[in-house]
Amino acid sequence: MDISAADVAAIDLTGNKIQTNITQRTAELLPKGVNFTSLLNTAPAVRAEPLSGGFQIDGASGSENTFIIDGQEVTNFRTGVLNLNNNIPFQFVQEVQVKSSGFEAEFGGATGGVINVVTGGGSNEWHGEGGLEFRPSELQGTPRPLLRPGDPVPSNRLETSQSPSSNY
What we know:
The protein is mostly beta strands and 168 residues long. The protein has one helix at residues 24-29, and strands at 18-23, 46-49, 54-57, 66-69, 72-73, 93-101, 114-119.
């Protein structure tokens, strides 16, 4: 196998962008959830923000990010996070790009990071994919009996007739 200079990506010494590209091939090999946001955890600058449902990028709050799908910004204008209906299944995603700093002026509204999603193109062939999610009730957590509302609070009395100090 011969390798030529055309096969090697050139290093841009003048740029200051920091970004992570997650291609469709990479996404297929990684453990993930059902939506494209589960792929964001593979980027080194991204950390889940559990309280707001967003993602911190380089330490910036999740509400400071910009989400773009196929060139259209889909960030919620009130909360700054991604709406649930825009969190598309990862099967539709061709590439996810996470820009954490040094991004272009066209993304000037983002003070955190830019998540750019490109969906895959179609063809004239019919094909599909199916899935099944199974949650057996035996593996699901149930409310503990002591924490259900309306139950009487159990007492901490000893069942024996002896006082606790007589055992010592």
